[in-house]
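Lab notebook, page 48
Experiment: co-folding of the full assembly
Goal: obtain a model of how the components sit together before planning crosslinking
Operator: M.T.
Materials (sequences as entered):
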Amino acid sequence: MLKGKLLEKFAELSLKIGVNIQKGQGLLIVCPVEKSEVAVAISKKAYEFGAKIVDIRWECDETEKINYQFADTKALCDIPKWIIDSREYLVKNNFCYIAIASENPSAFKDIPSEKISKVQQVKGKLLKSFSDSVMNNEIRWCVVSVPTYKWAKQVFPKSKDPEKELSSAIEKTMRLDKSNPLSAWNKHIQALQKRAEFLNKHNFEYLHFTNSLGTNLTVGLAKNHTWLSAEEMAKDKVKFVANMPTEEVFTAPHKDKVNGTVYSAMPLCYNGQIIDKFSITFSKGKVVSCKAKKGEALLKKLIETDNGTKSIGEVALIGKDSPIAQSNILFYNTLFDENASCHLALGKAYPTTIKGGDKLSITELKKLGANDSIEHVDFMIGTKDLSVIGIDYEKKKITIIKNGKFVI
Amino acid sequence: MLKGKLLEKFAELSLKIGVNIQKGQGLLIVCPVEKSEVAVAISKKAYEFGAKIVDIRWECDETEKINYQFADTKALCDIPKWIIDSREYLVKNNFCYIAIASENPSAFKDIPSEKISKVQQVKGKLLKSFSDSVMNNEIRWCVVSVPTYKWAKQVFPKSKDPEKELSSAIEKTMRLDKSNPLSAWNKHIQALQKRAEFLNKHNFEYLHFTNSLGTNLTVGLAKNHTWLSAEEMAKDKVKFVANMPTEEVFTAPHKDKVNGTVYSAMPLCYNGQIIDKFSITFSKGKVVSCKAKKGEALLKKLIETDNGTKSIGEVALIGKDSPIAQSNILFYNTLFDENASCHLALGKAYPTTIKGGDKLSITELKKLGANDSIEHVDFMIGTKDLSVIGIDYEKKKITIIKNGKFVI
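Observation: model returned without errors.
Model output:
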């Protein structure tokens, strides 16, 4: 539904603010087959900005679902080496990439979760070198979204024109409704940066999360952790914004210092299936139990993926007064929902959330408390009555979030 | 426009008659992004027939055109090795593949033909090992078509619903309008087989083509040539039909024994551009001159691609009473147009059109007169007044085609 000038602006933001494409650079666009007009718009703009070449990797929920339905797990796990090489090619040749994340949240709802988990586990291992490069900012990347019909229908089931409604919601979160979206983004980036600086100055040892759902969780932060926000620096010293929209400040928890129970605040869409109304209990950083009203088997499979999915690798703070939270829309899409709510992530920590972490080995990162895994799955915990208290190394307490909103 | 039961039947024909998919076999579908419903239908049917896994390679005219427009030739020629490996993977793992050829015939009409030719030349060289495997029936493959809007609009420019009209034309050529398309195909395959047997029995040394356009061409046939038709045998001894529709019988000309001038009977769509009203003069098998009212530069570039594009590698006979010829539709798509008209192909000969040719080296094939090239481009020469006379090794003449129709 994004079209004309608006689609052009969208493409411009993805390229200039998002991956910050440089002259002579290659670009990969990961695009759903039903949204080729978006790939066309981004391609054209990319060349305007001096791109060397634009490649597209097309994705199709429907044929992927058919494979999950009818191929056996062994065949699904038989990933050709050229697929791995195609990812490595991006890193070696300093491509940047824009992923359009517009999956139908229930694309795979009838598929046994064990089958999906098994395949994801094998894929995750084979592609770990690439996903490590991405999480370590070795290449510049950006995730954006455009509405697709099936996704929009799930967000606005009663709407006569769900794609239009979702498009309008996305436009607002992308600041496309501003007269000058580029400068609105630059202002926004500065504001989030200030918040991260405040948290870095205080260098908290622990965060304590509580709310009326029953959440009572202490999250130790990794040694040498650093809070990041929208704008990050890639290995080539060029800045970029990995998620658009983004409203979060985030850092690395200590993988062995998380204790207590946390309740989900929103459904989690994982591999085309939904996990909802769940709680997870941690002891010394590890999950010791979990429950879910919906998708419990899938949640358990997720936690069992590898050693690293039993701990968390990210803690992110977002106020309930963020524009996305205020929209009161449940997007069923992590890119949006994670920006409406404080969240944690099971799995790998971003090495960049440790000072100098992009130059450390995984063993060195682990010593500081940064988690490693083939997965990184955000889940939302921020409610309107959430309280987050920071405790520094002198045991001094500072309230960071009260009734869901930042008070710093 | 193909949908419902008709689309299912289409998928069934492509799989059963076309690639003749076997239990436990992998399938690749090459599909335009705007026709994902066709990939979905073929995928489902493929699993019904026992496919192990179905991969899709998506294609998009529009983003490809943008690349041709804005990327420089060097960047376009920088083909990653993983792309070559992805093709080799199919051969090594005995996948079969179905290509849906539905390009907009004028997709690249504003692109300088030198640029396209240069890129195609580099690609052709890099992918030669794969295309050799295809032409040598090392894997089973089938080219089919479904209407896309831009293609249909070019075929039926004045129609209110060009996609529907093109769809209906394709249904007829695919025998989808028959009550039992599968048995109609089996009958058709037998009929073409008989024609090939007749030609093989006579073992002609030369064919002589004449018509009122000015065509006067003698085509020597390769030593040990054999006439093939619809159904071929792949390396794994499983039969398949490489083109659907198909109305031709075809064999290998002798690359050094073609003399005279031939006039085109229909426009030729090559790399998204059109070459029309052209003539080519041969001496001792090589092109010595060519002219075209439209696309002359592109024709010359095609001929200059490599040594092999200066000679022909296929001669195919089709009667003007074939269903496609009788439809009087100019499809601007080789899959259809080549089945409405006798044709020749510049470039590589199918090794299988030489007896035992699939086991011969390129040097051995060349000794017998079979041409080699990175290209294989059909062009149509059959008019309603075409005469084709066969001359055997005893100089005995037999009229094969008179006034465009088979008389054998």
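Interpretation: The first strand of chain A starts at residue 26 and ends at 32.
Next step: discuss with group before ordering constructs.
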